[in-house]
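Today's session is about reading a structure prediction critically. Students often jump straight to the picture, but the first step is always the sequence itself: look for stretches that repeat, for charged clusters, for runs of hydrophobic residues. Only then move on to the predicted structure, which in these notes is written as discrete structure tokens rather than atom positions. Here is the chain we will use throughout the hour.
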Amino acid sequence: MEPPKADKAKLRTETGEEISFLYNPTSLTIKKVNKWNAKNKQGEDAPELVFDGGESGSFDLRDIVFDTTHTGEAVTVYTNKLLDLMKAQGADTDNNDDRPPSVQFHWGKIHSFDAVIKDLTITFTYFSQEGIPLRAKVSMTLSQLKREGAWSLQNPTSGTPRPHRTHQVQAGETLDRIAADYYGDATDWRRLASANGINDPLAIRPGQVISVPKLSE
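Below is the predicted structure for this chain, in token form.
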């Protein structure tokens, strides 16, 4: 019996394109930062910390190797695809906003949040006698694109090319307010109610995660 083939790490863009890594990364670093403000009170030894929201999460991939010495083709065939993901391509057609496309990192059961490539470093380390680059070392940082209800490595919606957005209900929020935030129109609350099977728009509760379909859906 042949041993199972190792899963290849890859990036999947919001349009469904997949860019597979030739070799899997050796390490992954996940970072999430919350902001806290100090509320000083006279006569107290230490200030009271007040939560001021969270910053975008980051997902660092380091020392990813692309090597084409066995075929002789230029390794730029692969690295140029990564560079293209840094270019504005009119990805957000719903809002008529040109921006680089969002991506998700997938490797076996590991799935990242929706993200954009914040920084990308490509170092060519080996060349043919004709000066063709045959090996490159790549590092990149993925930054969280938007708030997600389930912030984890194994988001169950990550397996689809264009998953629904999700929103975690905060205290005091209502469906019409959420609709206004995402669609610019509070009367679109019915779209949210229909997508989530909500019969009573006043029955949503803090902490509840709801699906937010795109206008095109």
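Discussion point for the tutorial: The helical segments are 76-84, 175-183, 189-196.
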